[in-house]
Amino acid sequence: MTILIAGLALFFGLHFLPMASGLRASFVDRLGAMPYRGLYSILSIIGLVLIVYGYGEARIGDNPVLYTPPHWTRHLTMLLMVPVFILLIAAYVQGRIKARFRHPMLLAVKIWAFAHLLVRGDLASVLLFGSFLAWAVIDRISLKRRTDGEPSVAIHLSEKRRFGDVGIILAGLAIFVWFVLQGHVLVIGVPLS
What we know:
Elements: H1 2-16, H2 21-31, H3 33-60, H4 73-90, H5 96-101, H6 104-119, H7 123-145, H8 159-187
């Protein structure tokens, strides 16, 4: 559990930096923009690796069960996961979905984390998914208060971009289906059955 907690502390410690714009600015001033981004990226990857490894170790080690979710929550989780993949793709593609939700990746993280808390009641899972949920909520609130956080509402979309949302939805649904059929076991190592 120690490795998981260390990974979460490193990863989210770094991801809280942009919320404190003065602190982030002082690091950028000292290091320079590119070295800051490079160090931030490297340390984030290390934190993510520690999270993945630590979660795997914690699941097979001493991992007390805090609550036992009812069986029907598995179905609700599957339903909640459908928009997650669409929102993740929309975060990187201009269109109505991105304009409507402004920060689709944060919304995807919130839904993903909440959905997994519905079906995983062990301590390691509560730490992992609860941390991601808390960070996404705090970051979204922070973005509303920061001057650099909210994109312009007046996004003009061409007809081509409007139809691009259909592609985003279809791609998200395709990835969701792949993830249900084989991706979750390949990427996460846990079958969904």
